[in-house]
């Protein structure tokens, strides 16, 4: 199975660390986030990885070359001309990913001790078009799931915006996305959006017809290191 690392973001929340380099190369305990994730994927059996680049993309290329791609096959989805957001990035990487039955997508600024085999097994068991790792944690934006963890909506508690795919919001479970998901390559046949767009938009659209499921992993260590103060927390949590 292939993995796609989303590493093209501007990292604006991580300034000043990203003023002279990409967030993918920001270090936690002396190791760049990109290296940490590649090594974790490699240990989990992934030998084919796609990395998208935009912000200081040349530095990522130089880093991978200097480390001889960490002994695995790494392909580059180049977004240096235009940053495409999560959905657009996945669509652009289609030529690298479409020949796999399914693939893992992972934000570069997410640290966790998740066992990737568990979400893959769950994804295969449910037969979902896509499976999102989700947690019961504080967040303004959350997905809404039914009792079978099938996607039924989305809400933003800060703006009071809500999207429902069902006639009733009763008994829906709000869970926050963890930045890790598994997607069937079949999705490329059904994506209606183009250019720059969020995969969230796609999931909410496709969930009307297909099963988009949540994989709850509250027991795992998990941290979004998108802000400087979270880097300090990561130093302690992921020694």
Summarize the structure.
By secondary structure, the chain is α/β, with parallel strands linked by helices.
Structure description:
By secondary structure, the chain is α/β, with parallel strands linked by helices. Helix content is 26%, strand content 30%. Strands 1, 4, 5, 6, 8, 9, 10, 11, 12 and 13 form a 10-stranded mixed sheet that branches. Helix 3 (85-92) crosses helix 6 (199-206). The radius of gyration is 17 Å and the shape is globular. The model has no long low-confidence stretch (mean pLDDT 94).
Average pLDDT, all residues: 94
Helix percentage range: 25-40%
Counting DSSP H or I runs of 4 or more residues, the number of helices is 7
* Poorly predicted runs: none
Number of strands: 14
Reported for the largest beta sheet, the result is: 10 strands, mixed
Rg: 17 Å
Distance between the termini: 28 Å
Global structural class: alpha/beta
Strand percentage:
25-35%
Helix-strand pattern, N to C? EEEHEHEHHEEHEEEEEHEEH
Give the overall form.
globular
Topology:
Elements: E1 2-6, E2 27-28, E3 31-32, H1 33-43, E4 48-53, H2 57-66, E5 73-78, H3 85-92, H4 94-97, E6 102-107, E7 110-112, H5 116-126, E8 130-135, E9 141-145, E10 151-156, E11 161-164, E12 173-184, H6 199-206, E13 212-216, E14 222-224, H7 228-237
Parallel strand pairs: 1-4, 1-6, 4-5, 8-13
Antiparallel strand pairs: 2-3, 6-12, 7-14, 8-12, 9-10, 9-12, 10-11
Helix pairs in contact: 3-6
């Amino acid at each position: 199975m292939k993995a796609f690392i989303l590493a093209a973001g501007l990292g604006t929340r991580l300034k000043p660390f990203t003023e002279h380099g990409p967030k993918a190369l920001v270090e936690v305990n002396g190791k760049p986030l990109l290296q940490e994730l590649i090594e974790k994927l490699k240990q989990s059996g992934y030998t084919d990885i796609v990395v998208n680049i935009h912000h200081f993309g040349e530095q990522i290329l130089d880093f991978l070359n200097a480390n001889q791609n960490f002994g695995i096959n790494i392909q580059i989805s180049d977004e240096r001309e235009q940053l495409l957001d999560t959905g657009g990035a996945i669509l652009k990487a289609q030529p690298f990913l479409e020949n796999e039955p399914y693939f893992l997508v992972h934000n570069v600024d997410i640290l966790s001790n998740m066992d990737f085999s568990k979400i893959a097994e769950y994804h295969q068991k449910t037969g979902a078009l896509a499976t999102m790792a989700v947690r019961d944690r504080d967040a303004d934006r959350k997905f809404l799931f039914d009792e079978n963890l099938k996607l039924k909506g989305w809400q933003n508690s800060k703006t009071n915006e809500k999207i429902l795919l069902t006639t009733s919001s009763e008994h829906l479970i709000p869970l926050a996305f963890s930045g890790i998901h598994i997607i069937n390559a079949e999705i490329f046949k059904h994506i209606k959006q183009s250019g720059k767009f969020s995969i969230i938009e796609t999931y909410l659209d496709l969930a009307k017809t297909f099963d988009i499921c949540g994989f709850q992993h509250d027991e795992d260590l998990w941290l979004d290191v998108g802000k400087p103060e979270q880097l300090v927390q990561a130093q302690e949590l992921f020694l």
